[in-house]
Amino acid sequence: MSETARKAETFPLAKLVKALKRESTHSPKDVLDGMERGVFQAWALRDSLVITEVLNFPQKRVCSVFCAAGNFDDVWEIMEKQVEPFARARNCEAIQGRGRRGWERSAQERGYATTSIEMRKEL
After folding, report:
1. CA separation for the pair 97, 4 (Å, rounded)
2. Rounded distance, CA 48 to CA 94, Å?
3. Backbone angles phi, psi at 93, to 5 degrees
């Protein structure tokens, strides 16, 4: 069984479905297909999840969080213990994401700067 298939089996899919409805840019199938192709990375802890994608801009490589859902503390634990090391290992210079305004204060406390509704932490 592939690592992606193993992750998909244990992934909190109900949280993914709910989170993706807010943005309506990806379906759960899009995300699972992207995981299988290596385009998206999925991170889970208990009943929480984060979906990332490494983006290459002309001046910077960025780890982009386009979906995060679940327990607030668990999501930040995923970000700090899983996503940040992954981004550094891939030579990303920043982590950026977008989300509800409720994330803003907590993101700023963790070193992210708010640019409209996008959160970014320089690495």
Report:
1. 23
2. 22
3. -95, -10
H/E element holding 61?
strand 61-69
**Structure confidence by residue, pLDDT tens digits, 70-94:** 888 999 899 999 999 999 999 999 9
Q: What pTM does this model have? A: 0.78
Paired tokens of 36: 């299988």
CB 54 within 8 A of CB 61: yes
Alpha-carbon distance 67 to 107, whole Å? 15
**Using CA atoms, how far apart are residues 63 and 120, in angstroms rounded to an integer?**
9
As a whole number of angstroms, the distance between CA 78 and CA 81 comes to 5
- Cβ contacts of 84 within 8 Å, gap of 6 or more: 95, 123
> pLDDT over 90 for what percent of the chain?
37
The total number of residues shown for the chain amounts to 123
What domains can you pick out in the chain, each with its CATH number? 3-122 (3.40.630.30)
